[in-house]
Write a structure and sequence with these properties.
The complex is a heterodimer.
Chain A lengths: L19 E6 L8 E6 L5 E6 L12 H4 L15 E2 L8 E2 L2 H19 L4 E5 L5 H15 L4 E3 L6 H11 L16 E5 L3 H4 L1 H13 L4 E4 L5 H5 L2 E3 L6 H14 L5 H7 E2 L1 H8 L4 H8 L3 H13 L3 E5 L1 H4 L4 H14 L9 E4 L6 H7 L14 H11 L14 H9 L5 E5 L3 H4 L3 H9 L3 E6 L12 E4 L8 E4 L4 E5 L12 H9 L14 H12 L11 H7 L2 E2 L28 E2 L18 E6 L15 H4 L6 E4 L1 H7 L6 E5 L4 E8 L7 E5 L26 E7 L2 H11 L3
Parallel strand pairs in A: 6-7, 6-14, 8-9, 8-12, 9-10, 11-20, 12-13, 14-15, 15-16, 21-25, 22-24
Antiparallel strand pairs in A: 1-2, 2-3, 4-5, 4-16, 17-18, 18-19, 21-26, 22-25, 23-24, 23-26
Chain B lengths: L60 E6 L8 H10 L9 E9 L2 E9 L8 H5 L5 E3 L6 E3 L9 H5 L6 E3 L4 E3 L5 H5 L5 H5 L5 E5 L27 E4 L7 E3 L6 E6 L4 E6 L12 H5 L4 H26 L2 H9 L1 H21 L18 H27 L6 H27 L13 H26 L1 H36 L1 H11 L3 H22 L1 H4 L3 H26 L15 H10 L15
Parallel strand pairs in B: 1-9
Antiparallel strand pairs in B: 1-8, 2-3, 4-5, 6-7, 10-11, 11-12
Classes of the chains: A alpha/beta, B mainly alpha.
Amino acid sequence: MLFGRGKKNPIKIADKKVEKWIYTTCGYCSTGCSIEVGVTDAGKPVASRGVGSAEVNRGKLCIKGIFEHDIFEASGRGEEPLIREKVREDYQTVGWDTALDKAGSEIQRIQEKYGRDSFAIVSTGQLLTEEFYTLGKLSRAVIGTNNYDGNTTLCMASAASGYKRSFGSDGPPGCYDDFDNTDCLIAFGSNLPEQHPVIYWRMREAREKRNFPLIVVDPRVTMFAQFADMHLPITPGTDVVLLNSLMYVILDEGLEDREYIEKHTNGIEAVEKVVADFDPVSASKVCGIDEDTIRTVARLYAKSGAAMSIWTMGINQSTHGSDGVVGINNLNLVTGNIGKPGGTSLSITGQCNAMGTREWSSCSGLPGYRYLENPKEREEIANYWGIDPEFLPKKRGLTETDIFPAIETGQIKGLWLIATNPMTSMANTPRIRKTLERLECLIVQDSYRDVETTEYAHIYFPAATWAEKEGVFTNTERRVNMVRQVTEPHANTKSDLWIFNEMSKRFTQGEKVKFPEKPAQVFDEMRELSKGRLLDISGMDHDKLEQQRGIQWPHPEGSGRDTGDQRLYTDGKFCYADSKAKLIPLPFIDNNEVPDDEYPLWLNTGRLVEHFHTRTKTGKVGNCNKYSPTAFMEMNPDAAAEMGVEHMQYVRVVSRRGDAIVMAQLTQRVPHNMVFIPFHFHDCVNRLTKGLLDPHSRQPAFKQSAVRIESVDQEEAARMNVELRQY
Amino acid sequence: MFPVREDEPKYAFLTDKESREKNIHGKFIELVEKNSPLYGKSLNINGDSAVGDNPNRYKQHGFHFTADNCIACHACEAACSEKNDNPAHLAFRSVGYVEGGTYPAYQRMNISMACNHCDDPVCLTGCPTRAYTKFAEYGAVLQDPDICFGCGYCTWVCPYNAPQLDPVKGQVSKCNMCVDRLEVGLKPACVSACLGGALEFGVIENTPLNRDQAKLDIPGFPSTDITHPNIRFQQTRSMPREMTRPDSMPLKYHRDDQQEKYIPVVDEKKGKPQRQWNLRKLLGSHENAHIAFTLCAQTVIGAFMLLIFAPWLGLSAVVTARSDAFLPLFATLFVILAIGMFKLNMHLGKPLRFYRGFNNWRLSPVSREIAGISLFFGGMVGYGFFASLIHYNLLVLPVIHWLAVASVIAAIIGGLVGFYYMYKLYRIPARPYWNHWQTGSSFVGTALVLGSVLILLVSGIASGLSALQALLPSLAWLIFSGLLLEGIGLLAHARDLKRQGGEGAASHFEQTTKFGYAYVLRNTLLGVNLLLVFLLTLESIALSPMALVIGSITLISLLTTTVIGRALFYVLVIPTTMPGAFFWKNKAFEEHARETGLANMPQVGVVPDGH
């Protein structure tokens, strides 16, 4: 009937005038999507798209990646180095030399006065691997502090620790291709569609082809839980109980893979002894999952041809995070599900290069998964770097979560924060503020001038971000991928590599050590140091990585292949001296803060798909931020009715640490005795969290705290909320 | 042509091999035959004269949405905004959701929605400027922002909230079906970006690979009867009996076992409904231009018709008054209508394009209204001018007489046409609160009441109190009947809204709660007015000195009633749109962000007030 105008006007569709697409790797999470950024002929990045031929994402991107070109010119970027004598004074804009000189002399002054370890360095999972390696060299071989760690302690430390304890080395043994081969998938505390949407897409595509059972363990009814065949709404902090009980059923019913256990593991007897206490009836009373469900899941998992487990922060961020990982590894070891297609224990990693920092930054040891505790490895690295092996500590120093208390007690006087935002991300932030005030010198190196830590800094280094630099990232499935430089660093910002190299020149010890200028030269050093090791990357170079759209390690020189190994431990040989994995017994001690009369609600925290970490990036990208521009709290409507809380009303949430103002969103997604608050917002949920530390990984338990709700004056709260949202 | 990459993934390509002959509504899917003049033409996308080689180029296409699978990851929305370079406050595609059940048997169903490129695009028929075209190519309904003058009428009539009025640019834009991608065989950007396996696209009625349903609707989706939208759904998971919306709309969806579908019912959200004032929201809405225009136009048309037809209506007092205060009366009508039209024009996103308002006179009630009112205005001015020449004996020539007659005929026709379409344009199926005869009775009532009041006032001022008193008895009866008509209409309206359920009932719920005091005040005043005006019909009072006192009170009361009534008319309408989310597309959050200043940060995605 209707075709409108006789004479049609030409159709106009937005044309961004992309002249060139530049290959790079996404700088948000560690899914590791290959992304192409479109630039105009003036070199301005204006568009992003997934790389069609990339094995990981096959042309897809999530919302954050789709707008990643917007972060280069986002508001709040740092432009010039800044210094000041006292925190109460205004910053002065200075040149790079002045800022670096001041930083160098402050570090040396503090180290001379209070000892080498009195200056701490806390880095990140955001830098390029070449930069991590260089920072490691600077920290270990030049500055020589043993209080050097990454913020990965907040997210992946438990996974790394659990892998080390079970297999003798860090390194996730599986890959995304396992989804295409598995017969059963359990996801522990992982909200895949929200946290890793592209991995979810891979999983779902695989499941549409071969409808394998999906079991989701999560106290919230996430979309993932809703789409699962079985949802196990577990009581927070009791994963080890559930895991032990699954083991109980498997061992009790003889469903384990005896041959695999005998050949490839140690310690089954001790495990058998401990899990004997976790019969499903007793366990169900602790973990909240009924006994029949425990038996069904255990049988299903053990009887599947290939079964895999994935997990994220639900496991890692608890007081038994490392134990939880070990428990998952145990489950997979006794059922023979390690290193086989569809059978794996795969930690879904957080930051874009959390893996890179674990592999090469020397945070928890020395480069290439080497240990400080191992004299041979110490010597190897000292010789390669050209320093006295005695300069290196013989034992790992403090983790990030122990560095802050050490500032509090005065052992640490100076701190260098690199691309991390503890004022928002650490548990119990009121304490972090107090801690930062105590520092004689705080250096903040960040792409954003408005990152909250600059409030307490003496020196600010404006760093280039993501694809303003060049280097590699390693993703969840150990795929090393290429980040090509898309655009020039913003204003007078410099790459982190340049900053580290320049900093090394401020130390006499730095003259002994070589600091190559170009990322490719740094990569050559890493390649050299990786030879013959689990994470062998000697067959890779930057160009090849781009061509192949990323290569998984191990990929040794002369392998004759263009691709790396998809899986680790396929031969059942692990990294312990006797090549056997360890089965480790996991007694359960409940040391969590649990709800009581005074603080009757569980406080759970987590991620939103549109935001990344502390919102320094996504909070400024309108097309991401608009979906949750301000802090909110999921609360059960029945509980809300009892407390007189209404939908969209502001409430004050109070814990034993502090309080936070949030807008209530009433939903049956959370149980009656729980609230959920996303962790992205500044001065919000981490004012409440307790963050007890895992004894092995020192990772904080962000997801198990107790709170109560109080009413607030709505106008006052709204005003406060606006004040707290500078971006 | 849109560049297809060498490594373009397979899922991004359209796959339709076969298609049906007719769609579910019996319409041919093939939109034009080979011999049609519309066949083989270039779409001229950004000046490119090439013709796409898509084998299904002339078949109606549409989205297919598997509600079972959507994870609300926003990838579709992001891909759309990235491709169309939309700022944060604007989106051609949005994801909202409904939820139900009790923990842990809780379910959330997300709905991703853009334009449905309907068989009967009400946006196209409604748009006064002819900015819309339904193309033979893919059946795409495309809108040209360069033609649009930003009146926003398409956003009123669309049941799916597809056209987006950008308050910053002052124009509408919407989903373009990514026809540039379709031309080269690629699916739209949103579909190619979908991570949940929810969004698909192809020739309408085709069920995508691995899907087995292509049904017409899902819970939360507005009635498909209005426009025959080109979207099909799969939704196989059983859902709780009741699904609620996270946004502030007082609606939820309840399963009707007989109809086997979910129907919208009122959601009292916050428990016990309470009456509130919310005066600022009531009187500060951005529809104020419409309040001013409709009231002015109805007053002037009412007064004009009374003045012209007074002799035939037996209103001798009016004939006398007209004769005594000819120029003041018509000059006042001119001024009031000019103000109304100016207000209306200035509310347009692009006021300088006002002349485009007539373009779609064949289809759009808005065009016809504008044409009618313009003709009326011209006729009235002409009549006022020529008749004054005669009336005041300035230039009495036969030609002047004929010009006056021609003008008055034009004004009468224009006035009637304009008035009718002013009513007709509010009879929007997607806006149940307006889609009732009461809209008409209210407009006519207003014309009678305010038209009479205007004559009374101007005569009183121009010719003295006695003139006013002479007019009172007869005009008071007219006012009385106008008020009665309004009252009867309102009673029927409230009754029918409650009965019909859905968005209409939700509007009624809002009018008795959120704006409850204003509603009660208006209704009470309406009763008081009837009483006062009845008193004024009595000669004993009309001719007594009391008349001035009662008249003044009545005047204030009448004006208050009318303004509140008309403000309620605009503020209470609840369109049949899709559910929003907690922040995005939640009207209450948008208002909150504006009030508190959150909206001043552009990344919040809410445009602050003041444009």
